[in-house]
Task: structure prediction
Amino acid sequence: MKQKASFLTALALTMTTASAGLAETELTVYTAVEAEDLARYAETFNQSHPDIHINWVRDSTGIITAKLLAERDNPQADVVWGLAATSLLLLKSEGMLEPYAPAGVENLDPKFVDGDNPPSWVGMDAWVASVCYNTVEAEKLGLTPPTSWKDLTDPQYAGHVIMPNPNSSGTGFLDVSSWLQMFGEEEGWKFMDALHENIARYTHSGSKPCKLAAAGEIPIGISFAFRGAKSKAEGAPLEIIVPSEGVGWDMEATAIVAGTANLEAAQKLVDFTVTKEANEMYNTGYAVVAYPGVAKPVEHFPEGLLDAMIDNDFEFAANNRAAILKEWQARYDGKSEAQ
Amino acid sequence: MTDTAQDMLPSGPAVKGKLSRDDIIMRGSMIIIALYLVVSLVFPLYAMLSKSFSTYRVELSQYEFQVSNEAGRFDGTILTGAELNARTNTFADADLSTGADGRLPVTGFFPDFSFRSPVMYQIRNTTDTGRFLIGSNLQTGTDWVTLDSNTFRRVQLRPVKAQGLDNFVSYFSTPALFNSIKNSLWIAVLSTVVTVSLAFWFAYALNRSCMKYKGVFRLIAMAPILVPSLLPGIALVYLFGNQGMIKELLFGASIYGPIGIVIGSVFFTFPHAFIIISTALAISDARLYEAAASLRSSPWRTFWTVTVPGARYGLISAAFVVFNLVITDFGLPKVIGGQFNVLAVDIYKQVIGQQNFEMGAVVSVVLVIPAILAFAIDRLVQSKQVALLSARSVPYEPQPNKKMDRIFFAYCTLIGIFIAGLLAVCQFAALIKFWPYDLSLSLNNYQFDRMDGGGWGSYVNSIKLALMTAVAGTAVVFFGAYLVEKSKGFRTGRALFQMFAMLPMAIPGMVLGLAYIFFFNNPANPLNAIYGTMAILVVCTVTHFYTVSHLTAVTALKQMDREFESVAASLKQPTMKLFARVTVPVCLPAVLDISIYLFVNAMTTVSAVVFLYSPKTTLASIAVLNMDDAGDIAPAAAMGMMIFYTNALARIIHLLASRGILKKTQAWRSR
Result:
């Protein structure tokens, strides 16, 4: 009899575990967040939601965006967590995002939330343009440090500046779009014409200019601040300059993919992404996060960067992207040698 | 045929036309392998071709507009976008054909437009396929949407899918893209001339002189085959970049651009040219040289009238192979090309940078043309080649000539230093802590897990891919070649198979990879499941390197008499048994050669797999590319050298294994 009872308990136990296993929802999450951070993100999320399992699909921003667009008619992702807002705007304009106001979204800096109600995406953290300046090489070449974007057009920097190609790099595009927003179309292109005379070459990736500046290959690299801080921490003789006119930026953001079969779980995940806890988690990699007052200073990060961030018009950037890139290509890519 | 008719016939073997079970098996297998080539090559290429004609166009007639007066009242006048454009000439026809991401603002249609005015606007799609944006919200229905002026300026028309030549028109009217054709051709021709001349003298020295250490030179000359084509680019950055060790040698010129591409191309194409020319120079008839000597021809004249004509087919073949390698290479111009645009990099930029798949397909079609031409001319020239060596020929043997031997030795040493030097620079750079500021040695650059590109996992993946490609590829290729070579009849089928087998050689890796995206990443394709897995990488790599493997197998099989099949048939042995028991063991040297060829190429290939790898299947060669792209140049060099050592080790194992196995299976060759 006793044996029978224990058998029944065992059976009951297996049944409960089996049903618990069934209750576990799997979410396919597309992301461009650094691979080393993903495990930490999932772990923190699972502390409060052990029943939702995240299957990550990670790649660089361009490739993930291309993948999502290619799957336009047959979406495979449930949630996009950590993709450039400009990319998410592309998806939004294809009607691919499910609008949802996550619980607690009102706590975020409005700059980081889609203007529509309910918002189609919510921001996580920002990466901000900056100039990496190699003090050792610059001194050898007798350069004076620039303080503004306009300074960079000075003939003394001819051949000593390097920046990413906006056609292949998101960082490159946010630079170009910020110049057009700050200086206006006409002045912006005039500025880039002058800058082009000083550019040694355009790189494919956004972090390479700063790494090349860190290695002294080209003394001045237009890149993003966090990359500069990292290289500086590794011992490169870098100074990170925040140009006085203001700096362009883009953010990583989160959205629910329209047509997901797991809407409830997806909403839970997005709810989590706007919490203070999640924003503290983003802060390890990013100096600027969406939740005000959370960010702790990151070592070697330039001062005054937050105030220098321009009032970025993401809609302008997304709607004019194709036209801007075409114009840029016609002006600067056509010349095969910049030097 | 009725039952009665059959009953009336006397039973007995059919006299003619009946296929034996063997024939059916062989034809069946051949069809399966041919199907493999169709699915892995022909269909994807077709998908790509049709993609290049898929355009996006804003159909202005699909939109209707109404404008109110200042009081916000509409008078019922409806105007289509096409009518408005005809009236205002806001957009030229070329403006209407855009990419998938194209947008057109509409305020230009209304000359009086001001975002402050109280005038209201209405807009709607006339068909269900019409699309426009308000801000970034997509509107698809055919209902009227009423907007105030300030919102109306945020309206953007979106293109719809169409078919046509618009992509090609836009390609040829974009100077930045169009220039690349000129750049690519120019670079390829220059690299070909330099490589073939250098390789010719190198091969000449090894075959026609009596200098020392020929074996060592031969080994060094083959080394570049073992590394990805972008590795020489990295070495050149360390040598001639702005912080380069010997940048003074360039006299202020920049290594980033055509100079770098040509030097790097010479490095990675050298072994290919060397092998072909060396084969051509290895055989020659001594009687021709004796005749020349007795006619008192000067050595120079003998060289031009005897040596060069004898090697002309080799030279032409080498030239086309090098041309093809350079024009289709993507890694090297990506690393060291700077602002110098070439076709292969354009494909990458269009697809990865801008997600403009259609334009990527257009550039691919453009790139395929010179590649196919070069390939076709080469095949044509090859088919004209006649035997140089007849039964009466006397093999030529070089005579020692102290002065010439010394000159050749010096020349080969220079080439050897060039090749070994570039590799040594990469290894050196990989071990330096932080070039040029901290020159202490460290293994920091081997901590791949801290960089982009997939870390050590990608190295393991690469080895997996290489092994799988070597095993599966050799099996498919050799079996396919056997079926084509040895099956009876079925001429059309065999000719068609031969054609499919030759095709991959003419298709650049970038094009193949892109074509795979279009074909396999289509949810409607039942083979969609292999997208993003290791399987698609294996399929792609096997197909990419099919031709050379196939030719190697065919050459080996041609040496075996067809009598074997007849004997087996008369002994009532199934052909498959013959294949396993006789053909494979006899052809084992060729089988091993194919497998090492596939292994090495799977380790080094970048172009074909760069569009196909997934986060779970990152590869070492791609990691080199991505780490360099992110600016981690030293780790990229370190990973590149890991590929070199792995391939070198594989070669050594291959050599030892061949020796052991050959002793066992090839004893019949010696008596």
Q: What stands out?
A: Chain A has two domains: 2-126+250-297, 127-249+308-333. Confidence is low (pLDDT under 50) at residues 1-22, 335-339 of chain A. Chain A touches chain B through 67 residues (CB under 8 Å). The first strand of chain A starts at residue 25 and ends at 31.
